[in-house]
Design a protein that fits this description.
By secondary structure, the chain is an alpha+beta fold. It is built from seven helices and 21 strands.
Length: about 400
């Protein structure tokens, strides 16, 4: 309550009870009733105005806009002639629209406030609480309250388009191929005339009897390949120069491969020695699985993972991964491996499994350069669009 309102109330009461002139007493009565009704109006408005989050959790990528939405409800019968709202957000969440607004709200009505935010950093950020201010129609009794409702914004790492050369894998998968060795007998393609050498088990006897010559059934070839990503974020393996930038690029490369695997319908898993909230001192591991929900779970982890010190290297990552199924493509992402680390990797990954090394340029260590025959090495540039150039 403002000091001027208190003084005005005291004057009105004095005029009402102690001034002898009847006309002046009526003025005091009118002023007293007006102040009392204004106070009642302000109290009722303060109690009846509520704020609700339309989306308690919002997901987006770095440098992309995300929308935060609020609903304001007036549960009372008295209109709110003046409302000021401010949705508190971290200063580094840039907003192209105002997270503050001024409006009126009739009794029993509702309205919404929507604005966009953008982050240049990945991570988990919280927007809120909501501050609401208002007053009675005469502005005699301003009020303010804070509603503790929040929106969690998960900012994923920026991702880049990935195109890998897929020539082999496991048969009967979700990825189309032209290699007939991967024909999927559950996906019918066509019937053609029999060619000498065709498998007799594929002869379509019904069509052959109807047409008078032997015909063979053809199926659509398709393959699959589980993807296991070993993400190395051990600080000792990165040079001090541009360490933050290079580690961010490393995480972006891992996120790009996760997104690529999910989009083409492949199983994907990830093991990292980075520091992940909720994993304490353990190495974070996500088993091989398919589906968008699984991919988004990994992406949420990549949004929060940080470089760490003193964690295990390639051997510990493989131990945490456990059994690696036949046909898996094991993709190491991080600084160049030493000769001993490459040997450890090739020793613990059994035959029938493909190993690919995704090296971050600008994060080289000493004693590198050893690459056994048959292992693909991709160099990732420190700037620009990430492209997996094979060497």
């Amino acid at each position: 309550m403002r000091q001027r309102t208190v003084i005005a109330g005291i004057i009105c009461l004095f005029l009402l009870f102690f001034f002898p002139a009847r006309s002046v007493q009526w003025v005091g009565l009118f002023g007293t009733v007006t102040i009392w009704l204004s106070g009642f109006w302000a109290v009722r408005n303060q109690r009846s105005i509520q704020a609700q989050r339309l989306d308690p959790q919002v997901m987006t990528y770095r440098f992309q806009d995300a929308q935060v939405a609020l609903r304001f409800v007036n549960d009372g019968i008295l209109p709110a002639p003046y409302l000021y709202v401010n949705d508190h957000r971290p200063s580094f969440l840039a907003s192209s629209d105002a997270s503050r607004a001024v409006f009126s709200l009739p009794g029993g009505a509702e309205c919404s406030l929507r604005y966009t935010v953008r982050s240049t950093n990945r991570g988990l950020f919280r927007v809120g609480p909501v501050e609401i201010g208002g007053s009675d129609p005469l502005g005699l009794f301003p009020w303010r309250k804070e509603i503790h409702t929040f929106t969690d914004i998960i900012v994923y790492p920026a991702t880049h388009d990935v195109r890998l050369n897929i020539t082999h894998g496991l048969p009967a998968g979700a990825l189309r191929t032209w290699n007939p060795i991967y024909e999927d007998v559950t996906q019918y393609r066509s019937v053609r005339e029999y060619i000498n050498g065709d498998d007799t088990r594929r002869i379509n006897w019904k069509v052959s009897a109807r047409r008078g010559t032997l015909h063979t059934t053809e199926y659509l070839p398709s393959l699959s390949f589980p993807v296991l990503i070993l993400l190395n974020l051990r600080s000792e393996d990165f040079q001090l120069k541009q360490r933050y930038h290079i580690t961010e690029r490393t995480i972006e490369a891992a996120a790009s491969l996760v997104r690529y695997a999910v989009e083409i319908g492949q199983d994907v898993g990830l093991v990292t020695n980075g520091e992940v909230p909720g994993w304490e001192d353990r190495i974070a591991a996500f088993p091989l699985n398919a589906g968008t929900a699984h991919g988004m779970e990994i992406m949420a982890m990549l949004a929060q993972v940080e470089i760490t010190q003193g964690r295990g290297g390639v051997f510990e990552l493989l131990q945490t991964a456990g059994h690696i199924p036949y046909g898996t493509r094991v993709m190491y992402i991080g600084p160049e491996l030493t000769v001993e680390e490459v040997r450890t990797l090739t020793t613990h990954v059994r035959g029938g499994t493909t190993i690919e090394l995704f090296y971050m340029s600008g994060a080289e260590k000493s004693e590198t350069g050893f690459v056994p025959e048959g292992i693909a090495v991709h160099r990732i540039a420190p700037y620009g669009e990430i492209s997996f150039d094979r060497t």
